[in-house]
Amino acid sequence: MERYSVEKDISIVKSVKGGEMLSLNGYLYHLNRKQELTFYWECNKRRHVAGRAGCTARATTVFSDGAHKLLLSSEHTHAPDPVERETKIFRDNLKRKSEESSGSVAKIIQVTLNSHSSEIQSRMTEGARRKTVERIRSKAVSIVEPQTLEGFSITDTYKILEDGEKFLIGDVEDDGQRALIFGTRESVLRLSQAKYWIIDGTFSTVPGLFRQLLSIHASIGPSHERSFPVIFALLTSKHELLYKKVFFRNTRIQRRKECEA
Ligand SMILES: [Zn+2]
After folding, report:
1. Ligand 1: centre distance to CA 178 (Å)
2. Which of 51, 116, 196, 206 is 20 to 30 Å from the Cα of 128, by its Cα?
3. Phi and psi, residue 61, nearest 5°
4. In the chain, what are the domains?
């Protein structure tokens, strides 16, 4: 039995402060609370405004398969406000374009404006549009590439996968050189089951401090006729000793996994 109905007009938009809002059939909701994958929303016209009583409408959604599905919703005391909703979407689009595009501020604003009605355009002043784009831009600039190895530490975003599994599985240092080894439990398992490994090095696409991206491919399939990249290592030098350490580390990780299995 299907527990929830699939609504056509249901989406998540960002509030001015960056929080999530539910957009449902022309109405907007603030998040009241969430419990695991169940989200409880309240109409954004909940507060009393001069001449209008607050609306008590609520909605409950369940987040599954990457989307919110409506579980429950109640009646509103007012008509939907599609203009307000589209203004939110406009602001969202402006932010997304600022993150994705490297074009000029004016260009980003123009491209975003083109896909919205003039009524929506007039809801946000030129100054406010410019500020929105510039704020996103300054955040992007503040992520700078490290210039030296000293004090270089890799943040959790790149160390740990979304499900909590470790992705940085080795951090090797040798005579001022460094190698970061990335892989998953499954990739280490694949290495241990492979008949052969293939090592491949790339030099052109690596970030600043590092000289080489090494990928280790494991043979797969019933007859091991194909190979698949399973481990990645960023190396600061092409020094033989560093290579050896990376391999030594990998065989050790692999043996440890075999013992655990
Ligand atoms: Zn309402």
Report:
1. 57
2. 51
3. -125, 155
4. 10-73 (2.20.25.240), 82-141 (no CATH), 156-260 (no CATH)
CA of 77 to the centre of ligand 1 (A): 6
Specify whether the CB–CB gap between 152 and 168 falls below 8 A.
no
Contact (Cβ atoms closer than 8 angstroms) between residue 44 and residue 30: yes
What is the 29 CA–ligand 1 centroid distance (Å)?
A: 8
How many C-beta neighbours within 10 Å does residue 53 have?
11
Ligand 1 centre and the CA of 80: distance in Å?
A: 8
Q: Each residue of 19-46: pLDDT tens digit?
A: 788 989 889 999 999 999 999 999 988 8
How many whole angstroms separate alpha carbon 80 and alpha carbon 91? 19
Q: How far is the CA of 119 from the centre of ligand 1 (A)?
A: 22
Q: Which bin fits 175, alpha (ψ -120 to 50), beta or left (φ > 0)? A: left
Q: What is the pLDDT of residues 137-185, one digit of tens each?
A: 777 655 566 677 776 777 777 787 777 788 888 888 877 788 888 888 8
CA distance 58 to 118: 31
How many angstroms does the Cα of residue 57 sit away from the middle of ligand 1?
A: 5
CA of 154 to the centre of ligand 1 (A): 45
Helix/strand/coil (H/E/C) assignment for every residue in 60-108: EEEEECCEEEEEEECCCCCCCCHHHHHHHHHHHHHHHHHHHCCCCHHHH
> Structure pTM?
0.44
How far apart are the CA of 7 and the centre of ligand 1, in A? Answer: 17
Gap from CA of 43 to ligand 1 centroid (Å): 5
